[in-house]
Write a structure and sequence with these properties.
388 residues, alpha/beta, 15 helices
Length: 388
Amino acid sequence: MTGRRSASASAVLRVVLDEGAIARSTIARRTGLSAAAVTGHVAELMRRGFLIELPEVAGAVGRPYVPLDLDTERFVVCGAHVAVDHLTVGLLDLRGKVLAQLETPHHGAEPAVQAAQIAELLDDLLVGHAPERTPLGLGVATGGWVDEASGTVVEHGLLGWRGVPLRELLTEVTGLDVRVDGHSRALIHAERLLGQPRSRSSVVQLFTGNVVDAAFATGDTVHHGPRSAAGAVAHLRVDDSEEPCRCGRSGCLEATVSERTIARKAVDAQIIEEPDFADVLRSAASGNESAIALFRERARIIGQAAALLFDVLNPEILIVLDQSVRDVEGCLSTIRDEVAQRSWICQDAEKNVVASSFPGTELATASGAVMLNALYEDPLFTNLANAS
């Protein structure tokens, strides 16, 4: 009975997330719940502070009704993304709007040091941007192999992490309810909750940064696999590459397209003086032809991986998250061209291969979505209830 009650409350809250200001009768039609059940769930969700009533409005035939909406002023959801060289922390409201975010180099790869830095950064954001709001919890996203169930980073080779109990570390230093997941799965949660409606049918998320990984979802399920190991595409072999990889082989996808590799190649090509990926990106975005060519060749290789994933998983859409897709003209079209040429399944690459719905706030949104997904899956969860 408790599971059914939570599922019904979840359905009500998700309809309000999707629709905005909405009448109880419309919620009943959208969810298939009885009017009495909707009334009961709405009362409970209002008691917990997730829903509010708006001023009465006239109905279609003149009969007034009181619409409901999410209370986006009472709570805040914290997010933290752990990258190879930096941390991104953010604050989101219940609609996933990023209220504030901050990106900064981290103080070193030691897990406890990073956890303490995240706690300090979040404290500063909360005091500066949401002093009157109640934190609902902390969502955390990172690359590598992440066991979502235990909140453990099983392995993150570039950080040198193995068996890091990240949820436990962050719970201790923040006092918040903490959820941890891999960043590609976190991005899928963000898209399905807040972004691309088509992603609710089936979706592949391909993330390319210093870490390269992927995630897949179909229907209501994000695929994790045993110990959440699904999506490990870093060592896919790509054509025309002899780039050495830390695994001991050469030509692996991550080694070939990683931000560190591109920064090193840019130095070799005398595009920049120091191996800084952000500098290469700025050069390309400002029109440097050599930098643009470097990114387009990288996009061609990313397109190889995207075509393979499309044929294996046959998703409704494939979302590529890469800074060059956002900032360098021609990168997304190059990826689409490669998919169109290589895929047996994809019939319309322009329609089926898309960029992130959250340009500029991808990492803050993804990490916050780890906690938002927990809320929208079970808004009656005890710890969330206690936050109100």
